[in-house]
Each structure stands twice: as C-alpha cells, then as structure tokens.
C-alpha cells in the first residue's frame, strides 16, 4: 500500500503556530533576512503624529515597575533566546527614543516597555521572575524543599537557559531543586519548556488546570494547518529580524524564543486542579506554600486558572491581565473567547482578594505593587473587557452591523480608559474584539440580503473591476484614493484589481505600498504584522514553509479520536462518495476500540465498548501510532515486526488514502505574483 491511514495524518499537527522555515519557488529567500520597507508617506507621518497627541507619555509607571527588583541582567545564553533578534532596535528601544515615522507611537512605546524586561528580578521575599527570554515570563516561588516554578516558557532551550540563569544568580537557594511546576493555562508559551525542568529535576510534580490536556490538543488539531499559515502572518514569521519597518513587538513581550533545536514540549500533569463547577476556590498547599486557585476556563484560554498566595499577599493572574488589551478573538484563528466571563472573573478576583492584595504578578509584563495601584489596574482591565462586550451588544441591539461596529467602536471608548496605557489594543484591538463579540452572539451574517449569497472572492473581483471601468481605470481611481491617504478603501479596490488583473504590475506595487502604510499606522502588533506580511507576499511571493511539527510529548497527548477526527477533515467528499467501508480499530495499550465508517463521502468514528464486526480490523498500540507520526517507523514495518496487525479487507486503508488530501502548508492568502512578476524585491535584503 502506498500510504496508510496513519501516514496520511503525519503532516496534520503543529503546536508551534509560528513557522520557522521558509521557501519560495522563484527567488532566493535566504537573501530575505530583513525588511527595509519604504518610507512613511506624509499621511502616515501625520496619522502617527496625531495618534501620539492622544497618548499620556507623562505616565511612566510601567518602566518603574519593570526596573524594580532587578538583581542581574540577562547573560549571553539567555540574551540569545530572544533579544538578539532585536539588535536593529536596541538603541531606540533602550533609550526610549521617540517613535520612528514607520511605527505607531503607542506600539513603539509598548516595544520599549517590553524591551526593558531584561533579567532576574525579585518580586518579594521568596518570589523571583526571569523576564525577557521568551514570550512569557517564568516565576519561581521558594518552598520548603526548593522551588515551585509557575509557567515554563514556550521552548525547552529557552527554559533550560532561563533555569540555569536563575539558579546561578538567585541570592538564596540556588543549589535547591525545582520540586513543583504549575501551568497557568493551555497555551504553548506557558508549558512548552516543561521538559527542560523535568530533565534537570526528574522528581518535579506538575500541576495543571481542569481540562488542560484536552484543550491543549483540541484547539490546534482540526484547523491546525490553517492556523499555522495564518499565524505566520500574525507573528510576522517571514519579516526577518526586528526593524523600524518590520517587527517591533509581539504585544505580550518583544517576541518569542527561537533557535536551533528549540522544541515545544509537554510534561503531562501529575495532578489536575478541580473545575470551577466543582469548587469555586480551591485551597492547596504545595511543598509548604499555600495557594488558593480559581478556575478561569473560557476566558483567555479554554483551560486556565489564577492563584492567590495568602502568605505573600500576592495574586498570580496568569494571562488574565497584562499591560495591554488581550485577544477576545486571535487573528490566527481560534474559537471566540467570552469577554463577559473574562470581565466577571476579574471582578471575582477583586471581590475575593482586593482588600488584602499587595502584589500582582502574571505571565506577561512586570508585577504591580501596592493595594490601591492593583485595584485601579484590575478594575480598568475588568471594565475594558466589559466595555467591549456591553457596548458591542448595545450597538448591535440598535441595528449596527458587524463591519460598522468594528470600524467605529473606538469612538465609544470612555476617556478614562483611553488615557490608560494598559488598556490599549496591542494584542487584541477594540475593532477585532468587538467583531468577535458580535460573532459570538449573532454570527457572521448581518441580515443584509446582499451579504447572504456572495460570489467567490475571485468572481466578485472580476465584476468589480468591470464596474471600475477596467484594470487601468480602476487603478487610476485607487491611486487617487491612495494619494489622499485613504488606505482602507484604496486597499480594497487594489485587492480586486490585482486578483482580476494579475499582470498589472503597477497595481501590485501600489497594493503592497498601501498595506505597508496601514501596517505602519497600526497600534496592534498583530495588525502591523498582517499588513506587512501581506505586502511582502504581494511583492515577492515569500511564504511560510513547513510548520514546526509537534513534539513526542504533544503527540502522546493526542487521543485516537483526535487522529480519526482529523483524518475525516482530510477526506474529499466527492472522491469518497460510493467508496464506503467500515474499519474496526483495536488499541491494546489503551484498552480502547473504535468503529470507523466511510459513507456518503464522510468519515465517521465512534469509541465502542468492544470490537465491532467490520470490513477490516486494525490492531495497533497508541505508542506505535506516535512513532509513525514522528516518522520513527512505518505501518508496514510494524506489520512485518508483528507489533501491529490487520485482518479482513486490507484495501480499505488504500481507499482512505486515495480519497484524502494533503494540505498546502503555504496556501495563498493574498494574490501572490507569478514567476517573473515579483515587484520591489530590492527592499528586502
């Protein structure tokens, strides 16, 4: 058989939603190591200058908090995990220079704040943080026998360097072990470095919130390929090292760790904390340290918690709050988060601990000290998510549609929130968060019949260009809007023209220039990266290559049902129609059995109490499935070695392979140039 039922799933899984390798079929992408970009236009200069006038630059408290408690700055090894990629911006970010014309001044200031996270910090007696080595920070809490670590970064090598740096420089207990590891929630930048901790301290006990393993896997499987491709845009994977015309920040920190042999790993939790339905506040003592955990599932992550440390009067907030507004909807794609529950859970934290709290610390940004400061901060964060939820629905209940709410929600923002830095839309913007709230309650359709049965994007583009009077006439009209600085509208026109008139070089150039200027004006880091990535692909067609595959740890966490569900997503219904079969699957090491049925072009599966009669029966251990997915063996080799077996009609596996697709990991998002049509490639060097 050419390809087995398991082999067709090999390319399925990516937990690192940021592509690390890039290829291109026409030009030498190895030369695209940076982004020079074009200058800001007079309209962008004016827009960014006007934006700066709305900002409260006299408020420098975040920089004071960032510097507080510094013990030692990062060393060479920890510096290399992240900060070395910002060498082009070091001087401007460090010296707090005013923003360049090509960067929104609010985003530039966020980059400066995040860049000042650079070392080992003492939070309070017995609590320390290493900040600036990855997208998240890692926190160490002194316990009776050693240390408890809260959140362990995104990659093993980054955590390994951070752990060594901590133990070598902490003024107390540097020779003591890490005895416990706690995951705040189910996103990779908080558990991906876990293997580095366990490798050094094999006896470490790991704790996770309710539903952690399931949610860690589920969020990234069925739409994983699309998420990875989209994430390359959101995080600017092809834009090269940071620069004034490229990446300047990742909102939560300057960026994420990268390097040779960096892997997202997952040490499975030894203990899972109870859900909020079971216990609203869960008290737990871990190696002599008292914690009061609160379940926050369904807010920033589908599985998560916060914790109060009563002996320290300190709250650990995970990613519920940070120095900015978070995503209610993330641009890479994910299920919409519940902004009302988010606001209410922050309110629960205030109600439970607001009277006694003295320190607030979390996964991102520096801690905040002082009861009054913390309460003001948390109330503003609470009210910010409440604002997005309540005002979106107020407008929707008065008939405003999704597009209009996204375009005007900023006009509804109270001055009290506008003047605060930590409510600004660096990660989640008011615009796309408001549209997420609308979508959560009302879906994508605005009830306008014109939007109910739209043509394909390509068909609409062709007809719009006809309405414009043709490619050249449309281009001239779009150019006039561009020259007036109306980039949002000219961008829509030019997108139509480039799709319908793919050989129109001037339109292609202008579309890229248009998106580039929109990127320069964007306050949100993700928005900036999306616009600049789109401009780059329109110009030279660069595109992400293979996403980083899941580690053995993550593969082992996937259920057989996950794998079977994903195989169903890969089936092409028109090819599969009329090729019905049934397959029983026996998984001895898990003592599980499944019944798989292809019918009406759809692949179904169900977990059964016992093996059901089927056209064929496959016997295979989950541990061996993992080896196939890691390309350490093949199904044929397992058959030949006797580790797997099959009876009945063996052709069903071949049938499944024949009706299944391989996803394009670099599918087109914007109209890329054909060979020989690259434009303005000189700006990338």
Automatic annotation (TrEMBL):
SUPFAM superfamilies: Metallo-hydrolase/oxidoreductase (SSF56281), SCP-like (SSF55718). Residues 1-19 form the signal peptide. Residues 135-364 form the Metallo-beta-lactamase domain. It comes from the Bacteria. InterPro entries: Alkyl/aryl-sulf_dimr_sf, Alkyl_sulf_C, Alkyl_sulf_dimr, Bact_Alkyl/Aryl-Sulfatase, Bds1/SdsA1_MBL-fold, Metallo-B-lactamas, RibonucZ/Hydroxyglut_hydro, SCP2_sterol-bd_dom_sf. GO terms for molecular function: linear primary-alkylsulfatase activity; metal ion binding; protein dimerization activity. One of its GO terms (cellular component) is outer membrane-bounded periplasmic space. The keyword Hydrolase applies. Belongs to the metallo-beta-lactamase superfamily. Type III sulfatase family. This is MBL fold metallo-hydrolase. It comes from Vibrio astriarenae.
